[in-house]
Design brief:
It contains three helices and three strands. By secondary structure, the chain is an alpha+beta fold. The protein has a domain of about 50 residues: SCP2 sterol-binding domain (Nonspecific Lipid-transfer Protein, Chain A, 2-Layer Sandwich).
C-alpha cells in the first residue's frame, strides 16, 4: 500500500521514530544516516569528520566521497573537522 500510495512530503519531520533513534547503538545510527544521504545534493563533495559518542565511549571517522557516507570505528583524521 505504501509503495502504491506514498505519503506526501511533510514540512515538519515525523516524530514517530525519535524514540527508536535515541536507542540505536552508534554503528546503527551512522548506518541509518548513510542511507539517508542525498547523493544528488552531495555531488562531488569530499568531507572527513571525527565524531565521538561520549555516552557510548566510541569514536568514528566519517567520510563522504562520491556521494557515499562511510564510517570507521576507532579511526580519526587529524585534518578532519571535529
Amino acid at each position: 500500500m505504501e509503495l502504491r500510495y506514498p505519503r506526501p512530503p511533510s514540512d515538519t519531520p515525523r516524530q514517530g521514530a525519535a524514540g527508536q533513534i535515541r536507542g540505536l547503538p552508534p554503528e546503527e545510527l551512522l548506518d541509518s544516516l548513510s542511507v539517508r544521504l542525498n547523493g544528488e545534493k552531495t555531488g562531488a563533495t569530499a568531507l572527513s569528520v571525527n565524531v565521538r559518542f561520549s555516552d557510548a565511549d566510541a569514536a568514528f571517522l566519517l567520510t563522504v566521497e562520491n556521494a557515499v557516507l562511510h564510517h570507521r570505528e576507532g579511526r580519526s583524521d587529524p585534518a578532519a573537522r571535529p
